[in-house]
Amino acid sequence: MNVTELEKCIETYGNDIYAFCLHLAYNQQEAEELYQDTFLKAMELLKGIEPENNPKSYLLSIAIRLWKNQKRKYLWRKRIAGIQSLADEAEEAEIDSGYSLEDEVLHKEQLRQLRQAVKGLEDKYRIPVCLYYMEGMQVADVATILKLPKGTVKSRLYKAREILKKQLAGG
Question: What contacts 24+ positions apart, CB below 8 Å, involve 151-160?
C-alpha cells in the first residue's frame, strides 16, 4: 500500500475507526488520540497493509493493539502512582424525530443502560461485541482481528449476550 491508498482508507473508513476508538476509550480526547495513533502506526506499517485484504480490519486491529498497550501502561502507572481516571461516558446517540417525547425519553434511557452494560463487560467480551454489532463485522473477521479461533469469538459473543440479558433484565 502507498500513501495515496492510505489516504483513501482514511476517507473511506475514518468515521468507522473513530467511532470504534470512541467505544474503546469512552472519552472523546482519548478516542481522538487513539484514532491519530492508529493512522500514525498505519503509516509506519504501510508496506504490511494489503488493499485487497480488508484494510479496515487491519486498521481496527492496530487500534485494538494500541488501546491495549495504553491500558496496560495506565494500569502499571496507576499501581505505582495512584493516577485517577478522567474518563467520561460516550456521547448520546441521536434519536429519530419521529418518536413521541415519551418514546424518545424511553429510548434514550434504554440506550444509556445498554451502553453502560456494555461498558461494564470485561474486555474479552466487550471488544468482540463492539466489532460484531457496532462495526457489523462477520465472526471470521472478528476472529482474524483478535487472533482468536472463530469458535472462541462465537462463545464470547454468546456469553456477552447472556451477561447483558441478565444485567438489563435485572436493572
Answer: 153/128, 156/124, 156/125, 156/128, 157/128, 157/129, 157/132, 159/125, 160/121, 160/125, 160/126, 160/128, 160/129
**128 in Cβ contact with 146 (< 8 Å):** yes
pLDDT at 77 over 90: no
**Region 33-60 average pLDDT:** 86
Judge whether 86 and 26 are in contact, CB under 8 Å.
no
pLDDT tens-digit series, residues 112-127: 888 888 889 999 999 9
Here the cell at position 34 is 487513539
Q: Which residue has the cell 498497550?
A: 69
pLDDT at 58: 87
